[in-house]
Structure formats: structure tokens, C-alpha cells
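Quick one: structure for this chain?
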Amino acid sequence: MSLDKIKQPIAAELDIFEVRFREAMKSHVPLLDKITWYIVQRKGKQVRPMLVLLSARLFAPIQEATYTAASMVELLHTATLVHDDVVDDSNERRGFFSINALWKNKIAVLVGDYLLSQGLLLSVKTQQFTMLELVSRAVKEMAEGELMQMEKARRMDIKESVYFEIIRQKTASLIAAACCAGAISTAPNDDEIRQRMWLFGEKTGMAFQIRDDLFDFGDDDVGKPLGIDIKEKKMTLPLIYALQKADKPQRRRIINLVKNESHKPEKVAEVIQFVRESGGLEYARGAMYQYRQEAFDLLDACPDGPARQSLRDLLVFVTDRKR
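Got it. Here's what it folds into:
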């Protein structure tokens, strides 16, 4: 299933969104305009705006409020990506130089702040206060999730329940906000729809992040394992499961490798091999498909039509993607 086919029910609306999004990023400061133009030219798959528009289209024709919701979500998502690259000291984003690589950390932080404030101001200007609450809650949870992950990386004592809470906050919360904001833009007075679409987005986000974590171990036929999460001492589900299954000496040895020797490629390869042989990838895939099925079940209670089918196809796309 291609993204172009998934976009079909909202293709015209996505074009309108892109214009609105560019407008929302504009500034009278030339340097800022230059940087935001660079960001727009290198946009990703636009999964989150698609989720907003499709979630809105599920219940009624897309409204002006829907474009506000999509722009808000994408502005805040872009802000977090810019800040993440500074935090991770990353020089690349989607195969291009990151903002901090080209303009240094100080400017990148300020650009992220600008995008964040523009997203929040957009909701205030249009008096979309429920959306403001939803998206602000998501940004708060993203920060909490990242900080919790950093704390646990130092201690290497993470349990499955903590891992799921981290990814619920750092990834699933914004996807939940995207789906929920889209739905309330066309069905503003239905609390049941609001709760269902938040949960649908949350389950989708959980499955999305587990798929991302699997890439680090060269899941399926995606090519050479990267081991980036291991180098950054991030405890992801495949590794957590493998450590739970290991005996004490093996567990101590693997934890020591991750803690103290993850800068050595041969040691990272050893950890990857350990996870693969312990059934960690199969276990994580099972968890991912469980979240996907729960999202399908929530979606099945929504009105049938092209938007529902596209949301279903998008969920399959993000969990079956090869990169």
C-alpha cells in the first residue's frame, strides 16, 4: 500500500494544509525565514497531518478548524525534532543536515522555541482552546518521556511497564493528540468520539515506536543493523525481553557491554546477536501487532468509508514499513 493511495480521500485538503503550514511558519526575521524554508523543503512523510485530516474526515467534511489542528500538530512536532537533534547532538535528519549542524545549537534551540510558540499561538488566535489543551498536554508528556528515558539509561533497570510508559509519553501522546484534534474539529461535542480517537492514536503511536525500535536490530530485511539505540544506552523492548530471559551472568555481561563498551562496533554487534538469539525481535513484533489490533478494533467502531479505510491502511503502512 503506497502513501499516495492512502492520501487519496484527503489529497486536496493536504495541499491546502501545506499552504497553511508554510504561512504559519513565516517570520519577519530573514534568518528565521531562511531556516523555516529549509525545514519545509525537507518535510517527511507527513504522517501526523494525515492522521489529523483523516480523523476529521471520518465524521464530517473537513473544516477550517481541521487545518488549524493539522498545522498546530506539525509545528509542534517539527519543534520537537529540532530540539531532539540538539539533545542527541545529531548532524542529520531524514538524510539532510540538521538545523544544529548548519546553524549551530543556539540558533536551533531558538528556532524550536519559535515553532513551538507559533503552534500554541495558532490555537489562541483561532480560539481553539480544546485543541490547545490537547496538544500542550502531548508536548508536556513528550518532555517527561524523554527525561524518564534518560534517567533510566543511566541505571539500566528498566522494566517492560516503564518502557511502555516512556513510549506512550514520548511518541504516542502526540499521535493521540493528532487523531483527537482532527476528530473534534468536525465532531466537537462528542466526548465518546474524543476519547476513542485519543486511544486510537495512542495505540497507533505505541505500535509505530516499537516498529522504530525493531529497526535498530536489523529487523526482517531492512539491511545492516544500526545499533544506534544501544550506543545511546536506550533500553528498548527487544533488549528488555532478552535480558529478562537471560541468566544472571549473561545479564550482567550484556548490561556491562551496553553501559561501558557500546562505543565499540564489535560489542554492539554482540548485543544485537544476543537479542536476536533470545527471541527479542519476535516478542516485540508480537507486542506491536497487539497494539495495532487494538487500534483496528477502536477504528471499527467509527463510521465506514474511505477515511476509515485510509486510516487502517496507514496503520498497516507504519507497522510494516522497511525504514
